[in-house]
Every structure is written in C-alpha cells, then in structure tokens.
Amino acid sequence: MKPKVVVTREVFDDSIAVLAGHCEVIDNQADVPYTPDALATKLAGCEGLMCALTDKVDAALIARVPHLKAVANIAVGYNNIDVPACTARGIQVTNTPGVLDDSTADLAFALMLATARRVTEVEAYIRKGEWTGWKLKQWLGVDVHHATLGIIGMGRIGQAIAKRAAGFDMKVIYHNRTRVAPEIEARANAAYVSMDALLAQADFVVLQMPYSPETHHLIGAAQLKKMKPSAILINSTRGGVVDDAALIDALKHGTIRAAGLDVFENEPKLNPAFLELKNVVLVPHIGSSTEATRRAMAMTAAKNLVAALRGERPPNLVNPAAREQR
Ligand code: GLV
Fold this sequence. Notes:
Blueprint: E1 4-7, H1 13-20, E2 24-26, H2 36-42, E3 48-51, H3 59-64, E4 70-73, H4 83-88, E5 92-94, H5 101-116, H6 119-127, E6 148-152, H7 156-167, E7 171-175, H8 182-188, E8 190-192, H9 195-201, E9 204-207, H10 221-226, E10 232-235, H11 244-252, E11 258-261, E12 280-282, H12 291-309, H13 321-325
Parallel strand pairs: 1-2, 1-3, 3-4, 4-5, 6-7, 6-9, 7-8, 9-10, 10-11, 11-12
Helix pairs in contact: 1-12, 5-7
Bound molecules: glyoxylic acid.
C-alpha cells in the first residue's frame, strides 16, 4: 500500500506527479489554508506532510498524528516547525536550501535599489498624474554603487547578495554568529566586523539570518539608533527579526532613512502604520517568488518527502537525529 501524504497548499503539477509516483496524495490545489484542526484531521493515517511556512507544525499537531514520519517544508527557513518535537518522535524534517538563493538575493537587491532611488514613492506620484516636469533637485535618492553594504547572516543567501554587490562596487562588511571560512570571505570580498561596527558603518543593512528565539527582535530600537541616519534597512529573511514597532518609530523620526521589507511580524497582518510611511518599500514575502524558483522549491520538497518515506536519507534532512529514533 502506498503511504498517504498531505500537501497543504497549491503546488505545481510536476511535484504532485513525483509524489503520486510513490504516495497517495491528498492535495489542496484549491489553496484554502487549513486551520490547525483541519490539518490534523487531514493527516489522520498519513505518513508524510509537505507544507509551507504558513503551516504551523507544532507539538500539539505532532501529538495528534501518530503515523507521521516526515515533514517536507517548501522553504529554506523552518521556524514554522517544532523540530525538537519532531525529532523526539522520529519525524524527519526537510527544507529546500540552495534552490532559492539567487532569487532571494535578487529581491534583496531590488529592495535596496527601490528604497535608495525611491522607486515606489515616485511611481505612486507619476500614476497620480502629479508630474509636471523635470527638475534638477527632484526626487533625489542615494547611491547604491560604492556604498557600504552590511550583511547580517552570511549563509548562502548572504553570500549571493555579496556577489551581486561586487558589480555595484560596494564595500561589503558582514556579521555572522560564527565567522565564515577565509575562502568564503575572499570570494564574497567581505570583511567580518562586530554587530555594532556593522550597524555604525553600513549604508545598507541587509538581514539574512534565520529566525529563531535567539534572533527574535535582533534589530530593535537600540540597534536602529546605532545605524547612520542616512542608512537603509532591508529585511528579506523573516518577520520577527525586526521589532516592527521600533522600526516604524525610527522611520517616522528619521533615526534611519528608509527600509525595504519583504517580511513582517504577524504577516499577512502587517502593522498598519507602515502604510502611512513614504520611506518604506513593502512587498508581500516574495523573496523566492519566481516561477522557476518556486517550482524548484516544491520539487525539492516532493523529492525529500519521497526519499524519507522510501526509507532513504532525504537530501535536505535538517534533523538527522530523527532517523536514529526510528
Ligand atoms: C522563504 O521565506 C523561505 O524560507 O524559503
């Protein structure tokens, strides 16, 4: 008998086909998000779960699904999953590293360029029909080229951002929980600095570290005060690494110049004060959202899930200890 799996959100047909080759698939191509209770009900008797960052796989859910063997997240971040609770129950958890690095780095750059050159602000102005003619001092922005880029979180995506910065002749500094290997620093042409030095020196501070209890509100009022008043903050990682209320205050009072945000605390219900601000560029968690990348992410998750349910080690296993529990 084929193992049963639930796919919680709409995905591309090719990844459903990969799953269907090995599993009985309960899909959700209608894409109506499940409540925790509905998800637990769907998972009755299922061995596999392919889910998105919008699904909370917590201890309460895990306690209700005794047959579950593997959870394949369609994301590189997996803060929506209680990994220790899965490990304790021998449930393998996988993510989708690598396939989204370049698209996410592109979006971080798009936010840098859009905030620096006020792209969304001027676009709104021109659409309102308010443009009456060219002026020398009109809509002055700041340069991205030759500026200092401070990357917090020098993993694969941070490195992809640094690579792009070279094309803009930027000076790159970075901070990471642990300093990266000298060959990575050399390739990224990035200098390791303390968090305080990065905040004090960077013209653009880009956040690319994973979200965890340790990185919750890593950027709050105190850190924003350490940034230059001319600096721009980019959050292309996860809501919650920034204290949004503190950021709104900093943007209102000119503590920093601007912010470009792909992610928010309590998204999709973002703090309404953001909508009143002109010096913030807001996009709805689209960092990896190109067709090729989202397709690759869903396919990676499907292959991880199939491998786990076939008893093979999934390529992107985040909790190897789970295999020892079984
Ligand atoms: C997207 O936010 C991801 O973690 O893949």
